[in-house]
Amino acid sequence: MTDFLDSKKLYHAFLGGAKAVIDAKDGLNAINVFPVADGDTGSNLASTMLSIVEESKIAVSAKETLYTISEAALFGARGNSGIIFAQYVNGMHFHLSDDKHVSLGCFASSVSGGADYAYNAMGNPVEGTMITVIRAWSEAIAQAKDHGTTFQEVLVHALQQAKAALDSTPNMLRVLRDNGVVDAGAKGFFTFVEGFTSVINDKTYVAEVEHLPRLVSGDALDQAPVFRYCTEVLLQGEGLDADKIRMGLSSFGDSLIVAGTDTKIRVHIHTDEPRLVCAYLADYGMMVQQKVDDMQNQFDVIHHRKYRIALVTDSVADLPQRVMEEYQIQVIPLHITLAENDYLDKVTMDTGTLFQRLEGIDAYPTSSQPSVKAVANQLSFLADHYEHVLILTVSGKLSGTYETVKKAAAGVSPDIVVLDTRQNSGAQGLLVKAAAEQIALGKTFAEVQSFVTQSISHTKIFVSVPNLDAMIRSGRLGEKGGAIGNTLRLKPVVSLSDTGAGTVSDVAFSLPNSTKKIAARVKRMLARNQVAEYAIVHADTPERAAEYEALFTDMIGKSPAYVMEISSIIAMSAGKGCVAIAIRMQLDDGEEI
Q1: What strands lie across the sheet with 330-332, from one edge to the other?
Q2: For the DhaL domain, which residue ranges apply (predicted)?
């Protein structure tokens, strides 16, 4: 029998609980109906637990070990339940004594303090969720600590109390009762406790076999989320005040959780304005992580899926939001680091905001592709709900996104297909739109792939750049060559080669001449073939975009498919004032592409 816990035992107990949750991921996703029926609670908790498994370590004392666990949990926390769990562990660490051996009384104080931390982190704690089971388990341990019992006996009793609390969750939340399920987050914590207890009792954890219902459309589930975006930010700094940050964010949405310490805080909120949330947080510290999930999109995929094929692209593809929503196109956002803060392209950073922030800063922003893990999480969700997944990425010659996505896809399913469009911006957007239209027509997966592959070489983009400043600052052009070009007042026309590499297709000495050179190229393309579709994109210059729209509408004989502002990723290297025409030509056999 165990009268105390040491560092090693505590570590292995946490790993036992974490692995139990990871194994239960699919079952937890299946019963996820609150606060949003988006089927990702299991995935979010599993991701949080995986961070604990991979990053925590056995230290000299139990308190130090629990510190590594709490840090790993906070860093890897995802979703509402993941962040609540991370804050619970953080509170446990704070309230654990620094004794070499953890007595039952010390452990009871730790879990009770953790429960208080978890409650206080939430803007509006809702009973019938994970927090209810956390409280029940912690109180059961605290009540038994003075009865002279062993850890094993106390934890077995506390597990029974946690099970009773879990079973009562449908009585507290009508949405659970109407769907005949317990709360997914509460079930996740109970599963953790089962694994934790098994290790303390020197037993192998065996998950309970359940036949869990898959989410189905119905009156109780068929309710769209109140706010669109589940927004999470990891904030680092000195003297961070969680209460002040929580109060300041309370008007931005609901499901607010602010968890962490005075140097590291994880924020979770459901909001319609993730960009404003991040702008607010940037004043408090350095945002080192951001994750924004489109809950409306997830809801539609689960309950109102239109097609058998999921079409995915990255945020470099310039395509209007209305088109994305019409065809349920999924987007992988690229990252921008600006003033040491991490932003998501087109989600928490747009082109206008980028140019405003560039004024008065010395370090030019940089861009990066998302992590393999983040992409894999997104693709795993899609693979669970679609028969096929097709991904069209920005040119591999311009970004590492293609390789990252390929690696992530291979880890999820060998059937996911990733294609390098060898394009960017509006040209990439037109390819994605054409692929979506083929999917909507009911074409087979193989037919859509073939269609896109042929279409790539029939798609071009020509960009008129007002100066070379952005290209120099972003590193796309050497300072010496750029300085000469600016001295000569060159106005280059930038395009992409057949391999997808950036190239200067023409050089002019004025913007009107730059436009004339682009128009001449479009005329030559028209002489060889017909334009199936074209788009006008720009960087904070609606006047030049309107000029191009009028010019090419007259030349081509039809209006552009759309006119829009470019991705902030592209704006970084092209610069303010650039404008482009992207063209998708018909195939050689006359079939429209």
Answers
A1: 330-332, 309-314, 388-393, 417-420
A2: 8-198
Neighbours of 29 (CB within 10 A): 24
CA 507 to CA 491: how far, in whole Å? 6
Just give the CATH number of 458-585: 3.30.1180.10
SS3 content of the chain, % helix, strand, coil (to 5): 50, 20, 30
pLDDT score of 205: 55
Separation CA 276–CA 469 (nearest Å): 29
DSSP 89-139: HHHHHHHS---SSEEHHHHHHHHHHHHHHHHHHBSS--TTSHHHHHHHHHH
Name the CATH superfamily, with its identifier, for domain 224-304: YebC, transcriptional regulation domain (3.30.70.980)
Domain parsing of the chain, residue ranges: 5-201, 224-304, 458-585
Instruction: Give 3-64 as a DSSP string.
Output: SEE-HHHHHHHHHHHHHHHHHTHHHHHHT--SS---S-HHHHHHHHHHHHHHH----SSHHH
Strand partners, 342: 337
pLDDT in tens, 107-154: 999 999 999 999 998 888 889 999 999 999 999 998 887 666 788 888
Please report which helix (H) or strand (E) contains residue 286, including its range.
Answer: strand 286-294
Q: DSSP 3-state assignment of 172?
A: helix
pLDDT tens sequence across 441-484: 999 999 999 999 999 999 999 999 887 666 665 555 444 444 44
- Average pLDDT of span 156-169: 94
DSSP per residue over 567-585, as a string? PHHHHHHH-TT-EEEEEEE
21-26: long-range contacts at Cβ-Cβ below 8 A with a sequence spacing of 24 or more? Answer: 21/45, 21/46, 21/49, 21/188, 21/191, 21/192, 21/195, 22/46, 22/49, 22/50, 22/53, 23/207, 24/187, 24/188, 24/191, 24/207
Q: What's the pLDDT at 78? A: 87
What CATH number should be reported for the domain whose range is 5-201? 1.25.40.340
Q: What angle do CA 503, 507, 509 make, to 5 degrees?
A: 150
pLDDT given at position 184: 93
- Per-residue CA distances from 406 to 159, 374, 376, 413, 435 (Å): 43, 13, 10, 11, 19
Q: What's the pLDDT at 488?
A: 46
CB-based contact 539:574 (threshold 8 Å): yes
CA distances from 230 to 9, 122, 234, 252, 552 (A): 36, 15, 14, 12, 40
Reduced to 3 states, what is the DSSP secondary structure of residue 533?
strand
Name the band, by pLDDT with cuts 50, 70 and 90, for residue 290: very high
pLDDT value at residue 148: 60
Q: Which two tokens stand for residue 190?
A: 């109970």
Q: Note the pLDDT tens digit of each residue in 254-267.
A: 999 999 989 999 99
pTM of the entire structure? 0.83
Q: pLDDT at position 206, please?
A: 53
Residues 6+ apart with CB under 8 A from 305: 328, 385, 386
**How far is the CA of 382 from the CAs of 7, 375, 503, in angstroms?**
40, 11, 35
Q: How far is CA 510 from CA 239, 282, 464, 491, 514, in A?
A: 52, 39, 10, 6, 6
pLDDT per position as a tens digit, 508-567: 888 999 999 999 999 999 988 889 999 999 999 999 999 999 999 999 999 999 999 999
